[in-house]
Amino acid sequence: MTINIQYVKMPTSETMTGYIEKKLNKLGVKYDMIITANVFLKQEKDVAGKGDICEIELSLPGPKIFASSKEENYETAVKETISDLTKQLKKRKASLKRH
């Protein structure tokens, strides 16, 4: 699986990149059908304090899978987004028929 991480209008972080790669590699081991993961980290001004956004798009056979989360910090946003993707991948895997 290829992982592309983009920091939109914010400085890059080696720690965050390592954290994201670790989480996505775990997902890639469990679901070997994933080809590419595109990750976008954005920051938005929000009165409620939830301005850190993580968007992940997974390329795999069939339609792409996308999830997004807006939280108080990036670690939580990444965790929630990957949780949403895991649910979608379980549904996709259940619908695939092996021949």
List the helices and strands and how they pair.
Elements: E1 2-8, H1 14-30, E2 36-43, E3 52-59, E4 65-71, H2 74-95
Parallel strand pairs: 1-2
Antiparallel strand pairs: 2-3, 3-4
Commentary on this structure:
The mean pLDDT is 91. Helix 1 (14-30) packs parallel to helix 2 (74-95). The protein is 39% helix and 30% strand. It has 99 residues and is of the alpha+beta class. The protein contains 2 helices and 4 strands; from the N terminus they run βαβββα. Helix 1 links the parallel strand 1 (2-8) and strand 2. Strands 1-2-3-4 form a 4-stranded mixed sheet, with helices on one face. It has a single domain, classed as Ribosome hibernation promotion factor-like (Double Stranded RNA Binding Domain, 2-Layer Sandwich), CATH 3.30.160.100.
